[in-house]
Amino acid sequence: MQTNDHKIRNYSEVLNHEYGPRGSASRNQFEEEAYAFYSGAIILEARKKAHLTQSELATRIGADKSYISRIEKGVTIPSVSTFFKIVNALGMSIAIINPL
After folding, report:
1. Which residue, 13, 19, 87, 89, could crosslink 60 as a Cys pair with Cβ 3.0–4.6 Å?
2. 25 Rama sector, left if φ>0, alpha if ψ -120 to 50, beta otherwise
3. What is the per-residue pLDDT across 7-46, written as a single tens digit (0 to 9) for each?
4. pLDDT score of 3 more than 60
5. Whole-angstrom Cα distance, residue 37 to residue 3?
6. Pick from 18, 19, 21: which is nearest to 1 by CA?
7. What's the sign of the alpha-carbon dihedral 35, 39, 42, 44?
């Protein structure tokens, strides 16, 4: 599906065409990679805003610089506990909201 003709499209249809329907292996892999990239970008931006180097952040959470680099690039997805450590080390917080 060519999408560079500047026409408005239904993004769900584009994702279905490119990666398969929701729940398919290829769509799940795409979404996992997208979440990794997005969370890495958030961590990178927050780290820079906090004026910390990757090494300083790594020291605060008991990891090494290369691990922080891989997270920020979206190559590695941190465990939930490590993610919370990173968020805390950056002076941020996470709100879990029950929509019920």
Report:
1. 89
2. alpha
3. 766 888 888 889 999 999 999 999 999 999 999 999 999 9
4. no
5. 22
6. 18
7. negative
